[in-house]
């Protein structure tokens, strides 16, 4: 085992030469393309990370814009609801006012009609009472004036009441 502890100078020389050639070949043909590929990959990853950050920022901006649009839409909706409620109240109040005016007109018309009918009924009643009174007076006078003595008494009575001055 002595040969393991004492290296052979020829073996060391050729091993060193082989190692040098291998390092030279690896450096020329393998390390350059590998390092170039690693550098390209690193740049690609870096560009992807920047693109992801830009995309994240764009998404955040879109979220802000969407939130602003939603707030704006909510405000518009609330304003429309408020205007609609005000319009509804106005329509209801107008309808109530119109109905009240119409009811007042109907009531006034009914009162006028009732008053006219009442006056017509009173007038007709007075006419009928006058006709009945005239008929009764005629009958009374006819019965009273049948005798001449009664006629003379009535004429004298009225002549006394009449003042000729």
UniProtKB/TrEMBL annotation:
GO terms for molecular function: proton-transporting ATP synthase activity, rotational mechanism; proton-transporting ATPase activity, rotational mechanism. Keywords: ATP synthesis, Cell membrane, CF(0), Coiled coil, Hydrogen ion transport, Ion transport, Membrane, Transmembrane, Transmembrane helix, Transport. Residues 42-120 form a coiled coil. It is found in: Cell membrane; Endomembrane system. GO terms for cellular component: endomembrane system; plasma membrane; proton-transporting ATP synthase complex. It comes from the Bacteria. It holds the Pfam family ATP-synt_B. It is a single-pass membrane protein. The chain crosses the membrane at residues 12-31. InterPro entries: ATP_synth_B-like_membr_sf, ATP_synth_b/b'su_bac/chlpt, ATP_synth_F0_bsu_bac, ATP_synthase_B_chain. SUPFAM superfamilies: F1F0 ATP synthase subunit B, membrane domain. Component of the F(0) channel, it forms part of the peripheral stalk, linking F(1) to F(0). The b'-subunit is a diverged and duplicated form of b found in plants and photosynthetic bacteria. F(1)F(0) ATP synthase produces ATP from ADP in the presence of a proton or sodium gradient. F-type ATPases consist of two structural domains, F(1) containing the extramembraneous catalytic core and F(0) containing the membrane proton channel, linked together by a central stalk and a peripheral stalk. During catalysis, ATP synthesis in the catalytic domain of F(1) is coupled via a rotary mechanism of the central stalk subunits to proton translocation. F-type ATPases have 2 components, F(1) - the catalytic core - and F(0) - the membrane proton channel. F(1) has five subunits: alpha(3), beta(3), gamma(1), delta(1), epsilon(1). F(0) has three main subunits: a(1), b(2) and c(10-14). The alpha and beta chains form an alternating ring which encloses part of the gamma chain. F(1) is attached to F(0) by a central stalk formed by the gamma and epsilon chains, while a peripheral stalk is formed by the delta and b chains. Belongs to the ATPase B chain family. This is ATP synthase subunit b. It comes from Plebeiibacterium sediminum.
């Amino acid at each position: 085992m002595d040969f393991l502890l004492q290296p052979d100078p020829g073996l060391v020389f050729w091993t060193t030469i082989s190692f040098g050639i291998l390092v030279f070949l690896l450096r020329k043909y393998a390390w350059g393309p590998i390092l170039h590929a690693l550098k390209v990959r690193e740049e690609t990853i870096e560009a992807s990370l920047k693109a992801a950050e830009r995309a994240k920022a764009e998404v955040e901006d879109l979220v802000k814009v969407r939130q602003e649009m939603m707030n704006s839409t909510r405000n518009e909706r609330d304003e429309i609801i408020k205007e609609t409620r005000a319009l509804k109240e106005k329509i209801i109040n107008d309808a109530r006012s119109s109905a009240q005016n119409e009811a007042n007109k109907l009531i006034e018309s009914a009162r006028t009609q009732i008053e006219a009918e009442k006056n017509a009924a009173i007038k007709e009643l007075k006419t009928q009472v006058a006709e009945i009174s005239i008929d009764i007076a005629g009958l009374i006078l006819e019965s009273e004036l049948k005798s001449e003595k009664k006629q003379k008494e009535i004429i004298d009575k009225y002549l006394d009441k009449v003042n000729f001055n």
